Amino acid sequence: MKKTFVVILLLLSLNIFAQQNQMPVTGNNEQIPGLQSIPEGLEWEIVNGRSVTITEYTGNAGAVIIPEQIHGLPVTVIGTEAFMNSNSLTSITIPSSVIYIGDGAFFGCWNLTSVVIPSSVTFIGDEAFSNCTGLTNITIPSSVTFIGDWVFDGCISLTSIVLPSSITDIGEGVFADCSSLTSIVIPSSVTSIGDWAFAFCSSLTSIVLPSSVTSIGDWAFAGCISLTNIVIPSSVTSIGDGAFSNCWDLANIVIPSSVTIIGYEAFADCSSLINITIDSLNPAYASIDGVLFDKNIRSIITYPSGRVGSYTIPSSVTTIRNDAFSNCIGLTNVIIPSSVTFIGERAFSGCSSLTSVAIPSSVTSIRPSAFDPNVSLTLYTP
After folding, report:
1. CATH number for the domain that contains residue 263
2. Regions in the chain scoring below 70 on pLDDT
3. Which range of residues forms the domain containing residue 166?
4. What are the DSSP calls for 111-149, one per residue?
5. Integer Cα distance of 89 and 104 in angstroms
6. pLDDT (tens digit, 9 = 90+) per residue, 17-46?
7. 291 domain-assigned
8. Is-above-0.70 flag for pTM?
């Protein structure tokens, strides 16, 4: 009997001890009275008893200071969409304990004007600061090795940014729609520019790509209407679809011998473009008088949209590619030689000054929408 009583007493003691020392795995400032350093509305959880993740912010303060520790454990993660659409937020202090900023962490914080990311952070997730329309300045430390896709998309007040040398890739849409961005420093560690990376950065006037870059993604600089100059280094091997489309102020572009892939509509609707120059040693492409052809001058690929007047297609050409002359509004006349057999889709669409075209009898295929409906076509036999 005495032995049974001792066992029961021991079990009760252990249970009381466990209750007294139990630490909550989730909480906010209201659950822990007296901890004034935790902002009202800041919610969090303890992970594996070792660290704290900020999970949500429901407060309405303008300036928020995230504590470095909660319950004596380091705050290491700002979780997915933790501050998403916190429109009252004007500034945020991130402690040096944080190593990870999750996807959409500050998405849509319209009134957030500046952020200092501590040198402890190594990872910034997709859309982390997307649509922070009031953000004018952000410092990215050299500790960051990964920046996700669309991170600063729609940050229309961001004027400049310096990327650290720890970054090797600029992902998809990272700076898309940053319409106030006038300058960016890309470090020599970067090897690829992702799809839509700088699309619609309408204030960007020039950019220097380091010699480490090997690829420029689809629509990477599309809609950069103020871009007047870009230097493509000899390290680049591919230029994606629409990469420089709608760069209205771009007048000249030089393609080095290393580029073996130029995507569809890479220079479409560049209304000031008058010269595309291809290095003579390029194995895949050639240029004659600023017009882009394949290496053997069999296909005409792109006629610069900014040219004015008449153009005679070289007699070696057999194919006029899709969109080759699309939206060349200054083109008044084109002479198509008898060597041509194929005219691609939208080849002359949007050429508003072109009223009539003589088609040689050698042409066996004219694809849909090759010419606008108002253009008079006549057939001739050479």
Report:
1. 3.80.10.10
2. 1-36
3. 159-273
4. T--EEE--TT--EE-TTTTTT-TT--EEE--TT--EE-T
5. 15
6. 333 333 445 666 544 544 447 999 999 999
7. yes
8. yes
